[in-house]
Amino acid sequence: MKRNGKLVWGVVLLVLMSVFPVNLAEADAGGGKKAVIMYSSENGKVEENQKVLDGMISRYTTDISYVEANSVEAEDLEEATHLFYYGKVEERLHEETVELFADFDGVKTIIGYNADQLSSQLDHVDTSLQEAVEGAYEADNEDNAVEFESQAMFPTDPSESAEILLYGTNESQENPLFFIEDDIYYYAAPNLDSMHAVMFAKEMSGIFNVEKEEGHPGYLRLEDVHPLADAEQVQEIADYLKSENIPYMIAVIPIYTDPETGREYRFSDNKKLTSVLQEMQDDGASIVLHGYTHQFRSSETGEGFEFWDVENNMPIYHGENEEVNPKTEEDFESPEEFEAYNQENLDYERAYIEDRIESGIDELAKYELYPLAFEAPHYTMSQNGYEVLSDYFSTYVGQVQMSDENWEIMRPIPTVGQPTYLHGMTLYPETMGYVQPDEPDAVDMMMKNAEEYQFTDGGVTSAFYHPYLGLDGLIEVVEGMKQIEGIEWIDLKETDSQVVTDKVEIRADGGEIDVNKDRIALYTSGFSYPLYFLNNTVEAMVRLIAIIGGLAVIIFFFYIFRNRSQANKS
């Protein structure tokens, strides 16, 4: 592991970045591709289905913009190479919208409702009915098929000139689900949740005219490792994973807060565990910051929510003990006052998140544990929160909350990408789930999920596991994942991941970790580490004294033995 105490390089880099900001959209691997998502939704706003589409597109380009269908203007489509219309709801499209879609000379894709308004050759799509689809297969490769729980699709009857890409099937029939007609890609379903996202992603390489990706990126993440975790249990898992020679991730919580007493436990309180985690980091693991305390109010670390007030189902706009009284626009005399109120909430949340993120990164770095990515506790965080997070991290792992109205609105993205709502962070999605202690078929269910995501070229197969469940369950998960055909284990140390605070800069560097940190500022930011360092120093001195004392005793007995031998000879 590379460590460099000089902070000068990092400061210079940050200054240069502020003067000459890097726009990922301009430097992305999309090769000049620009995508526009034109949408019809219930409230005229971007919601989770459009965000899933955004996430899948971001695998091919990060130059993505949104426009409401009946508000689109010619300027919105300038320089665009790909136009996606997502009809989540039925809506009468304006004549100007229809004309702009018809005149667009790039690649056009339609999802869901209102296709007949954009192309007369798609009037065979019957959006008044929805049929069950329980499986799918590629039109040009029937052996490449998948089965899943029932989803909904529209009945279709494309012309003979249409190119069928995917068929949707159920027990009694099959229907064209994804096809090209009138030079338009059409996907015959109103939703992109669950398996529909997997099936849609399957054909996106054709939409962007790139080679299909071979293999399936995958990762295993050990979850909720905090200072009170059992060091011996974690050591046993560490030894096993080292013997398997696979990279993996550890989601680490720096502070454990006792819900009864409020006492905070740090890694200085569990030196054995700290040593084990350092060893794991050297032997193939990548550390993922999993919150600072993983709790809010009096909830238990690992069980509570940290970046979302789950009791009121809202972002953290208030202190733990403050009375919560959300206001609406009707509570204010003017729109300006309401806007100022919203901004005050966002500013409060930003300060709260910044404090937690900086404290978490710095706390781990004190003990030479260097996070390369972030995972929000219970995957919950507001949209503003992701923007704040992107100031510190370039990599996010897990699933993404896609609404500020309800924390439970989250969707897995099938592939790795850089969704616009993550503000430049690369997303490594979690897709397989985890071992639920009370579910006897948990691993079989996880492997079924993996099978579904394997249907997509480049579909991610990733899972997490709680170490407190013991080694046997982990072995079962790893053995199952090793059977995934084409799995390519993700090693965050081999990515471009980087993490930055005022005190420390961490970069993945060709399989190692490059660290620049202000040691004085870092180690004097609290009392826990100096005491930890002092205690370690004292213990080292005691061990040294013990060794010296032991040597003295050995020498003493050696001289006694030698003198007696000489006396006997005399």
Automatic annotation (TrEMBL):
The keyword Transmembrane helix applies. Keywords: Membrane, Signal, Transmembrane, Transmembrane helix. InterPro entries: DUF2334, Glyco_hydro/deAcase_b/a-brl. It holds the Pfam family DUF2334. Residues 1-24 form the signal peptide. The keyword Membrane applies. It comes from the Bacteria. The chain crosses the membrane at residues 540-561. One of its GO terms (biological process) is carbohydrate metabolic process. This is Uncharacterized protein YdaL.
